[in-house]
From TrEMBL:
UniProt-recorded name of the protein: Extensin
UniProt domain Extensin-like C-terminal: residue ranges: 43-215
UniProt keyword terms in alphabetical order: Signal
Natural source organism: Sphingomonas oleivorans
InterPro entries referenced in this protein's UniProt entry, alphabetically: Extensin-like_C
Pfam families reported for this sequence: Extensin-like_C
Length: 215
């Protein structure tokens, strides 16, 4: 009889508890943005100036959805004209300027017997999730912490695009694109290209998020 009493009590407690929760599991939260270290920011700007890079200091801005552009600059002249450059954290602007002025031209001389006269960008700051896919965490573009490069204009008139050149028929173009990709991996925390996924089939993505990762 005592055992039957225990069973009845357990049934009654289960009924009081109700059905299990059907709420979906919570998505991982976006990591909180770390404040910019003023000393590192001053040093970064000084390093840009020492390289001869011209830039504008932009005011800190914060937007809905966790997006922000703080500690950022607008690159005005870095040795090669680059289209569509907007707000970019100084911590990305510095290695990007070094990559443009050094690695890109070295690779162009080595593999293309020329030099780059202009580069094309898909932009820098953009308040959106990773790969533009709803539900993903905030992209580093949403923190002005990334830049995308899509094409290179050469002194002989050729225009090399990541989309057509990465797996194209010209071995020298393929070698050039892989050389600038490899050199970026030594400068940025995250580097993505056509081998990373379909979202990057037509550009190189560079950011200073948590890494290192090069693909």
């Amino acid at each position: 009889m005592k055992n039957w009493g225990v069973v009845i009590l357990l049934v009654l407690l289960a009924a009081c508890a109700g059905p299990p929760s059907r709420r979906p599991p919570a998505r991982p939260s976006t990591p909180a943005e770390q404040p910019d270290d003023p000393r590192k920011l001053r040093q970064c700007r000084a390093d840009l100036s020492a390289m001869g890079v011209k830039y504008e200091i932009l005011p800190d801005r914060r937007f809905a959805g966790g997006c922000s552009a703080t500690g950022s600059v607008k690159l005005v002249a870095i040795g090669i004209p680059v289209t569509n450059l907007g707000a970019l954290k100084c911590g990305v602007a510095l290695p990007f300027s070094q990559w443009v002025r050094e690695a890109v031209q070295q690779a162009a001389r080595a593999w293309l017997d020329g030099y780059v006269t202009k580069m094309e960008s898909f932009g820098t700051y953009s308040c959106r999730p990773v790969n533009g896919q709803i539900g993903n965490r905030l992209s580093e573009h949403g923190r002005a912490n990334a830049v995308d490069i899509s094409a290179f204009q050469l002194s002989d008139g050729r225009r090399i695009t990541v989309k057509e050149g990465w797996s194209g028929s010209d071995p020298n173009v393929r070698a050039f694109l892989r050389a600038v990709h490899r050199s970026a991996c030594r400068r940025f925390g995250i580097v993505l290209g056509p081998d990373a996924n379909a979202f990057h089939r037509d550009h190189f993505h560079f950011d200073m998020g948590k890494g290192p990762y090069c693909r």
